[in-house]
Amino acid sequence: MFQKLILIRLFSIIAVSVLYSSSGFAQGFLRADGKKIVNERGENVLLRGIGLGGWMLQEGYMLKINNEGQQYRIRERIEELMGEKQTQEFYDLWLANHTRKIDVDSMKAWGFNSIRLPMHYNLYTLPIEKEPVKEQNTWLEKGFAMTDSLLAWCRANQMYLILDLHAAPGGQGNDLNISDRDPSKPSLWDSQANQEKTIALWRKLAERYANEPWIGGYDIINEPNWGFEDLSNDKNGINEKKNAPLRKLMIDITNAIREVDNKHIVIIEGNGWGNNYNGILPQWDKNMVLSFHKYWSYNDQPSAENMIKTRDQYNIPVWLGETGENSNVWFTEAIRLFEANNIGWAWWPLKKVGANNPMEIKSNLNYNDVVNYINGNGNKPKESNVYSGLMELATYARLENTIIHYDVIDAMIRQPFSAETKPFKKHFIGSNSLIHAVDYDLGRNGIAYFDKDTADYHVSTGKYTAGNRGRIYRNDGVDIVKDDIKYESYYVNNIESGEWLQYTVDIEKKGVYTIKLNIASDNSRGRISLTSNGVLIAKEVKVPNTGNMKTFKTIEIKNIALNAGKQRIKVLADTGYFNFNYLQFIR
């Protein structure tokens, strides 16, 4: 019943009319056709997807771990705390709960048409160091079975599944967390055996899925970042000019795939986290797509010029294989930019212990103690508490136990194409009705709300900006924090002069109302104005000094005449420097 209610609410929030590109439902195998990705009918297909980061491969930051965040190190430290058997129980439950059919069903309902699966090779084959017979491959059923299940759920929803080798044997870069790389062992680039295992794995996958039309493509090496020519000064390959070993390995992988599969797209990524294609092109296969990755840069046309120029020069499609980890404003801007240039995308990630994604996995007190200890900020927790905290975390990874961030979904699916605002929650105004400040309308910055610091553009500016300083409850530019005292209560803080919030309300009866504003301030500079449907109803109301920024008091604005029906109430900070908890309407 709970799952049905979730899906019903999702459909009520998301505009279903933008689920697909103009081509309608995709048909048959995808293929490259000049600069476009098309289906078997030759119709343009714009991929709108999400990556399942954190499922097969945990990166430390997704679990709030920032001290040695490779998965193998996280697992080693968990084993030190509660033993190998209980650690295996946690990982089994995590893999079972993180991604299920309900997740895929929901992604389809929200408006996505594809999924990118970040694969860890160790679910499909043994590391070279553990092979019982040197230079032979032991195949593990676990990874293939998980992929088969995911493919079945995608097929049922008519969604494309893109296989992404996120952690290659040995690890493909010096950004260690991405590929779960152990620097004490030979990397992918230092070991012929690791390269041969990588090639063999792709041949095995291609052989298994050669006739599956809902496999969208093979993303053969995620974010290689390696300095082949100058490792000491360019460890991530940003300035690499030739990229010869990367090109050679990708050609060898492609050849192995084509021995058994001539139908599927082969997706390649440049060095330097997917963006340095020096020496790699021209392409060596007629059914190939370039994947770029984009984070924390401006979303103007010049920011896409390198992708577009490369696409035009080599007459090859481009796909944004990974992007995200920012604010809703950035998401909306980026998707509008990509789609205006006929570039499909896959967001990162679907869920994690954090708020700027469609689903947030809730933490718990025992797990917080584990994180603090691993990060070097706390005492060693008891074994029983470690087990309890981790098993609870794995249980919270199930969709129905996550916090679903509808504002993130709306920013990705509806807002790039619509300037309309929608209520975040239904606000029915009777004789005594309260609206929490954080429940302002869904919509773009400058239309549903206005905030001066909306996103992180540090790649373009060289300066980190918070975007959302609280990074909780919602992912817009509005700064939100959790109340220290009240359970699951939130308020808006860091309000600057000129910022505002809009609330769409349904007023039961025409009448004269008193509007109460619950405010905290450590000064008397703040001023607030109110409008209703664009008409000023209260001008520069003084905000008193309540003692500090966490002591809330109510100010009253009396004799406000409001008509019945829908009203858009705007709360404007003429002068900021106060925090805002709720507004209340009394007739």
Brief sketch in words of this structure:
This is Glycosyl hydrolase family 5. The protein is α/β, with parallel strands linked by helices.
Choose one word for the global shape: globular
Q: Count helical runs.
A: 15
Strand order of the largest sheet: 3-4-5-6-7-8-9-10
Structural class of the helix and strand makeup?
alpha/beta
List the SSEs and their pairings.
Layout: H1 2-13, E1 31-33, E2 36-38, E3 48-51, H2 71-82, H3 84-98, H4 101-110, E4 114-120, H5 141-156, E5 160-167, H6 176-179, H7 192-209, E6 215-219, H8 244-258, E7 266-269, H9 271-274, E8 288-294, H10 301-314, E9 318-324, H11 328-340, E10 344-348, E11 351-352, E12 359-360, H12 365-374, H13 383-396, E13 403-404, H14 406-413, E14 428-429, E15 432-436, E16 449-450, H15 458-461, E17 480-482, E18 490-492, E19 500-507, E20 511-520, E21 527-532, E22 535-542, E23 553-562, E24 565-575, E25 579-586
Parallel strand pairs: 3-4, 3-10, 4-5, 5-6, 6-7, 7-8, 8-9, 9-10, 11-12, 14-19
Antiparallel strand pairs: 1-2, 12-13, 15-25, 16-19, 17-18, 19-24, 20-23, 20-25, 21-22, 21-24
